[in-house]
Design goal:
alpha/beta, single chain, 17% strand, seven-stranded parallel sheet
């Protein structure tokens, strides 16, 4: 297949491009340079600038389009909603309209679409975002649904090691714990995190199994941000005396985040016959991959094909 990955220099996009390049022709695009160890056809550009994204999709004519590029800062979206809706909604619509009729559009969405008042939400729950980020990603979902018959929307929350251009949340937390920096971890803020290599492996299985429509794909456990950080510290052998237990409701962040963003992956498991790892299992793989180049992090995924 010919595969196009937007946001290919980002955390998820780079892992997806590397994985699928094993068996398919992959073209990546991003505003930032490609950083993977293997050569990859790569186009630098801004998807929202002068028709760049639509022209690229029409020229590449991908069989499979992974749309990973997004404005992903929750607080940044809250402070600049016009930009958020353009990046996460309008650009998505333009790319969807440019895709060939038989192409598969895979839209990477978020776990931040719900009110946060119940755990392990399933796909049947009606979205009701609290943040501009969540609302703008929901608009992107609806643009895909309205435009592309052959689509897959995947809501998730992943972590991992990036290019080093900027730290991911997981990298920042690892470094803070390692250096024993003071850090506040919320006890009342829940999610179901999934290590990015585990996510890529399972996304490939989901596509292979014919998954279409909306799927939740996250870790098996609902954990607090505090429990996630303490588990990381325990597995890495870091002391936790500098960790302060805090409350999200007292943090006064620019965006009023939902307190419980945990999602259930039960529908994914039923379709594929596979499972998703728990928190400690994912963090062990995260720690094992710390010094590994991008390709080697994905070796365990190589047996899966699409």
């Amino acid at each position: 297949m010919r595969v196009l990955v937007t946001g290919a220099a980002g955390l998820l996009g780079a892992h997806l491009a590397t994985f699928f390049a094993r068996q398919h022709e992959v073209i990546g695009t991003d505003r930032h340079p490609w950083w993977g160890p293997q050569a990859l056809p790569f186009l630098l550009g801004d998807l929202g600038h002068s028709g760049f994204g639509e022209k690229l999709v029409r020229e590449v004519r991908p069989d499979l389009l992974f749309h990973c590029a997004a404005m992903a800062s929750v607080d940044g979206c809250e402070q600049n909603p016009e930009k958020a809706y353009f990046c996460n909604g309008e650009i998505t619509r333009r790319l969807a309209q440019a895709l060939p009729p038989d192409g598969l559009f895979v839209y990477l969405s978020t776990d931040g679409l719900f009110r946060g008042d119940r755990p392990l939400v399933e796909e049947t729950e009606t979205p009701s975002p609290k943040t501009v980020y969540g609302s703008s990603k929901l608009r992107g979902e609806r643009e895909v649904q309205a435009t592309v018959r052959n689509h897959l929307i995947v809501r998730t929350n992943f972590y991992g090691w990036s290019s080093g251009r900027k730290k991911t949340a997981g990298e920042w937390l690892y470094q803070a714990l390692k250096e024993q920096q003071p850090v506040t971890l919320f006890e009342d803020f829940y999610f179901s995190p999934l290590y990015v290599a585990d996510f890529v492996e399972r996304l490939a299985l989901l596509i292979q199994a014919g998954g279409r429509g909306i799927y939740h794909l996250c870790g098996a456990e609902r954990v607090s941000k505090c429990d996630f950080g303490l588990t990381l510290a325990r597995l890495a052998g870091f002391p936790t005396g500098q960790v302060r237990r805090g409350l999200l409701r007292e943090a006064h962040l620019p965006a009023d985040r939902p307190q419980d963003m945990s999602l259930s992956s039960r529908r994914f498991c039923a379709l594929t016959g596979g499972g998703v790892p728990g928190c400690a299992e994912g963090l062990r793989r995260f720690l094992d991959d710390r010094e590994r180049p991008l390709q080697e992090r994905l070796r365990a995924c190589a047996e899966h094909s699409v």
